[in-house]
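Quick one:
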Amino acid sequence: MWSNYFVQQDEEGRIGVAGAGQAGGLGGMKGGRGQRRIPKMSDSQEGKIKLAFFVAIIGVTLTVLGMGTEFWVELAQPKNFSGNQTCQMAHYGLWKGCIRTLWVADIDPERTSCGPAELPGESNCTYFKFFTSGENAVIFKKTTNKNLNLAAAILALLSLTMMAMGSICIGMSLSKGVPFFLKPASFCFILSGLLVLLSVLIFHQSVLALLSSDHSIPLHHELSWSVACVGSAGAILILGGVLFIILSLPFSPWQKCLPHKNSTT
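Output:
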C-alpha cells in the first residue's frame, strides 16, 4: 500500500513539473511575439548616412556664411559721375548695407562703373531698421521695399531652423542606430534648400524694386558672391535631402553595389 502511494505522488509531481514547463514556454513565446523588433542599421549604411550628412553640413556652412555677409548685391555709380577723383558704390545683404568711397585711379580703366567693393577705400556701414522701427533704407536716393526685404530675411531664418531640425534628426538616427529619423531629416533639408532659393529670388525682386523707385542717379547693379554662395548652398541642401530619402528606402539602390555573401555552407 505504501509503495503504491509513493508511486502515485511521484507521477503527480512529474505531471506538475511538465505542466509548469509548458506554461512557461508558452508565456515566453507570447512575450517574444509581443516585443516589436526594431531594425538596426548596418555599419555600411551608417557610413553612407554620415557621408550624406557631410554633404548637408557643407550646405549649412555655405548658407550661414552667405547670410552673415553684406555682399549680396553691389550698386555702383558711374565712376566719373561726381566729376572728381572719387566715386561711390553700395553693397548690402539681408541685415546691413555699406556705402563705399573709392579712388577712380584704382579702378580698372575698362570699367565704366565704380567698383568692385574689394578695392581699398572708405566704408560706412549701418544695419537696416526693417526689424526695429520698420523704416525703409535710402541708398543713392532710392528707397527699399521693406516688405520684400523682410520676407527674404524671414525665409532665410526659417531655412536655418529647418537645417537645425534636420541635423537633430540625423544625430538621433546615428545615436540610436535606427533609420527611422532619415525621412524627417530629408524633409527638413529639402525644405530648407527650397527656402534658401526662394529667399534669393525674393531678395532679387527687392533689388529691382529699389532700382525702380528713383531714376535720378544711374546705377549699375550685380549680384555678388554671397548670392552665389547661398544659391549653391540651397542646391547642396536639396541634394543632401534626396540622399537621405534614398537611404531611408527599404531596398536602397545603393545596396546593389554591396557584395552579396554566399548563404550556402
